[in-house]
Structures are given as structure tokens and as C-alpha cells.
Amino acid sequence: MTGTNQTTLFDIHKAAGARFITYAGFSMPVQYTSIIAEHRTVRESAGIFDVSHMGQINLSGPGAENSLEQLLTCRVSSLPIGAVRYGCMCNKVGGTIDDITLYRLETDGFFLCVNAANISKNLKWILSNTSNTKVVNVSLETSLFALQGPKSPQILEAIGISNLRNLKRFRFRTISVGGCQALLSRTGYTGTDGFEIYLSIADSKKVWETIFAAGEVFGLKPAGLGARDTLRLEAAYPLYGQELTEKLTPLQAGLHRFVKLEEGGFIGHKSLIEQASEGNSKMLVGFQVEGRGIARTNYPIIHNGRTIGHVTSGTFSPTLQRSIGLGYVESRFADLETEFQVLVRNRPIEAKVCQTPFVRDAPKRSQEEQN
């Protein structure tokens, strides 16, 4: 990144017609053509996102594994080299400091991919809760692209990356693109097959252009944060600051499978054990809107005229052609098929709790991702 508020590809995005918003302190493309068009491109062929605003923190040394076991809700010791796991970092009362992906580079070497707005907070928390571990923030040295969609493997094969069938979901390996070294991870935030590519900022323009030159024949298009948000919502992936905060726990967000409750040993474990045994007063649910209108963040959820929760994320689903959302409700309203209303501009709109993910074309989460 060239500064505190732009990625190195800012001029390329601008030339491509991107419309920008400020997000986590960065000027980021929200869309190039339209959010719906970019969303459909990812679902049907392939799109590429510049998400270089995300943070990366390296941890290494003889104490790294044990430090991470204490910091994260997911299991660390059983993670093999070349694999990735999703988990959360909690405070002492079980609230979510951030949700992260953990990469094991070697026996005593790891890195965390963290949310852009939380880099400084995370770094301070990690440094205060590690021992015998070297902690390095490499966010300002790293670019990150997300190549997502069913044709993304064909695009990578066209630039000389072979044996992709052997790269399973939530695994990674080192690759070379146009003479530039990068880390290729079969992960993503869109609910479809795809890859994330970590590389040096010095190589970002060359790699971006190389991918686009190969991807044009496959219908590859750039995609902005708008489509990334609608895609992740169709997959019911949480967004930090909305579904997860320091006042909300992974259990309330329905992320039980990413929490090592039985083993324990992580910060916040005692509070989460108590919460699991006593039950939660509110839970995150997915819902579909039955009437006309779009549920937006912070809209009240009501039942018989009484507020029972609020919307955390909502959108019109381009795939389903209907409005969907996530929201926290009192636990007794969290069962499937439960009906309530969302106040859309003070007008009650019928809605119903439904199964998530809303769109099921994504590959199933692997055991390694969960444990």
C-alpha cells in the first residue's frame, strides 16, 4: 500500500471506472459497473477483488503455537503446515475482538489475516498476550487479491498454475505468477469456489494485470466491496462490526463449531462455558423477507408490536431474487419458520426465520476449517 488510505492499485481501479467509498480508513472500490452485475459475474464465472486493506500479522518462534492456542477459539496444535483455520479472538468475557483466518507456514511459523479496521487493536492484544513469540505486522508490505467464482481454477491454470485439484478447501501453497512469488489459498468470503492470493505490494500491479490478461476469455471482471457484501450475506458469513463485536460472542453468532469449548485454554473460555450452559438471551438468525422492502442494518425486529431484536445485515439477494438478512433476536424467536416483522422505514414488513446459508452453491466447510 502506498499510504494510509489507498491500495497500490488505486489508479488501476479508477481507470476501470470504479466508484470509491471510505472503508476502514481506505479508499476502496465499492463497484465498477453495478453491484448486481458484479455479484452475478462471481456466481456465474469469476470476479477479482482487491482486498489489500485487510491485515496480516506474523507470529513465529518456539512460543507461537502455545500463544495462539491461548488467543484463538480454534484448535492450533492440530493444524498441519499448509492449512488454514477460521476462528475468533475473544476478550476475557467472551466478546469477539476479531474473527480471523490462521495460516500455518511452518512448525513454529504462522500468520493471521485480520479485519482491516482491527489491525492496531489486534496487534496490541496479541503483543500483551504472547510469550517467547516474535510478532510482526506485515500489513503495509502485503497485497491481497480474492479471485472468486467457478471459473477461477481455469484462470489460474491459464497462467501456469497446475494441480489445483490437489489444493483442497482451506489449504494453501506457494506459487509463481509472472516471476512473482505469492501464497495461494483456497479460501474466500463469497460462498463460492475461489482463491485468495497474498503477495508483496511491489508485485501487485504485475500480478493483477497477468491475471486479467488470462482471465478475459473466461469473463473475468473486477468486483467491488458492494458485491463482496451481498455475496458474503448470501453465504451467511458474519461481518465484524455487525454480526460480531466485543459485546457479542461467537456462540451468540452461531459459530459454536469454531470454538474449542471442551479443550478450553483460550482467553474468554470460562465465560463461554457459562454462556453455553446457561443459554443465550439472544441469537443470530437468518431470515427472508416475505413482503416488499429491504431490511437494513439496525432496523428493529418486532413481534406483536414489541421489539425483539435488530437487523445486523440485510440486502436484496441477486441469486434468490428476494430480500434476506441476518439479525439478533430473543432466543425464543430463533427457531426455523418463526415469523416476525422488520420495521422498514417505520413500516412493518413480514419476515420469517430460515435456514442458512441462503445460497448453497458454496463448497461445504471442511473439517480442517472447523477444527
Write structural notes for this entry.
The protein is of the alpha+beta class. Among the domains are: 56-137, Aminomethyltransferase beta-barrel domains (Alpha-Beta Plaits, 2-Layer Sandwich), CATH 3.30.70.1400; 281-354, Elongation Factor Tu (Ef-tu), domain 3 (Beta Barrel), CATH 2.40.30.110. The protein is built from 9 helices and 19 strands. It has helices at 10-15, 35-44, 64-71, 119-128, 152-158, 204-215, 225-234, 269-278, 367-370, and strands at residues 19-23, 26-31, 47-50, 55-60, 84-90, 96-106, 109-114, 134-137, 142-148, 172-177, 180-185, 194-200, 221-222, 282-289, 300-303, 306-317, 322-330, 339-344, 347-354. The chain has a 6-stranded mixed β-sheet with strand order 10-11-12-9-3-13. Strand 15 and strand 16 (306-317) form a beta hairpin. Helix 2 crosses helix 7 (225-234). Mean pLDDT is 95; it is low at 362-368.
Q: Which blocks of ≥5 consecutive residues have pLDDT under 50? A: 362-368
Would you identify the CATH architecture of the domain at 56-137?
A: 2-Layer Sandwich
User: What gross morphology would you assign?
Assistant: globular
CATH superfamily of the domain at 56-137: Aminomethyltransferase beta-barrel domains
How is this structure best summarized?
With 371 residues, the protein is of the alpha+beta class. The chain is built from nine helices and 19 strands. Among the domains are: 82 residues, Aminomethyltransferase beta-barrel domains (Alpha-Beta Plaits), CATH 3.30.70; 74 residues, Beta Barrel (Elongation Factor Tu (Ef-tu), domain 3), CATH 2.40.30.
